[in-house]
């Protein structure tokens, strides 16, 4: 009897212990996903490394200055030791809510790490959501980084950055676009500052708004597999070459306005002071689950984005796989769309400063596009004279819409001379005077179509005049 009681008590204790352990585990899991509110950036920092957290930063304005860098609060090193990161989100399966939060970053911070580049916000974990942060670079558009700067970068897999509003400043020289330098080739060296870099696997930039006042790309992709850019708005700034040529002092004046293309800057063109609105690269490196990958960009999707006053609207020519662009608008850009291959569906662009579409290389193949030409918001200054420039083969291109600029002498060009400011005087011959062959062009505008001597086997259905200088072309009125 005594043995039975002892055994009963022992079993009861075991059952109670199991219940207690289960409850503790349950509460631990629940607490991991409970919302946490923090009231400062310093209080936020520990959560950036954690998994399964749901963190909200209290509404307000927060700042990062050189004083904070001196204190050692910010400045982790990226996975290739080429940049210092101010805010690094390395945890997984987490949500960070910045609704009502403005983060200001003084442009002088870009000079606090010697020869390191500065990346303001980087996601290296996976399955995270960052939303509704306003980021503002405080300083001059001309503030020069020691090495270069970047606003947001996504590595890892299946992350989403949503609802960010970014004001990007701090590059040198700002005011000339790429006329005097690009990459390692330069007359005046650039210190770039791009806004948003997408890398990793299936990462998603959604409903972000970028006010771009620096030399660099707004949104670009490197080593990105299946990236999605959706609902984003980019606002850059343009400047006429006539205005640049009127300078009586400064960096351009000091080099007698001789461009990186080997000739003096010509009048009559508009240049974006930034680079591409949305761009894909064929190289780069990224980190996913702790492993480094070196590769190009593949299978990009761009949906319902608006790009204004940038060097290009959407350029995916250097990506591979399926390239799909739908519902986008390019306003006052030097060039609207360049994909090389792929689909542009239900998109719009004006031709105020350049073509709505331009082929990149003669090797461009199987480009299918339906682009509506819209009235321009700005006065026309289209130095190339092109509504569109089509080279390569295997395409089906449909152009619709307004032809309000007929008196500007603009035309739809198939092959031949692009008239692009970067290609004058025989510059970059592999990108100019390309052949256009064996594709279909449907012109539902009144703009004329010029089939150059480099065109052959092109079928044209046109509501505007067609001038055929090629061979074996078929014109259907």
N-end to C-end Cα span: 107 Å
Number of strands: 44
Cα shape: globular
Helix content: 10-25%
Q: Which residue ranges are poorly predicted, with pLDDT under 50 across at least 5 consecutive positions?
A: 1-10, 18-32
The protein's oligomeric status is: single chain
What integer is the average pLDDT? 93
Q: What profile does the largest beta sheet have?
A: 12 strands, parallel, barrel
Task: Provide the spatial order of strands within the biggest beta sheet.
Answer: 8-10-15-18-25-28-31-29-26-19-16-11
Counted by DSSP, the helix tally is 5
Description:
- 10% of the residues lie in helices and 40% in strands.
- The chain has 477 residues and is mostly beta strands.
- The strands form 7 sheets. It has a 12-stranded parallel barrel with strand order 8-10-15-18-25-28-31-29-26-19-16-11.
- The model is unreliable at 1-10 and 18-32 (pLDDT under 50).
List keywords for this structure.
single chain; 477 residues; mainly beta; 12-stranded parallel β-barrel; globular; disordered N terminus
Quick overview:
By secondary structure, this protein is mainly β. A hairpin with a 5-residue loop joins β4 (76-77) and β5. The chain is globular.
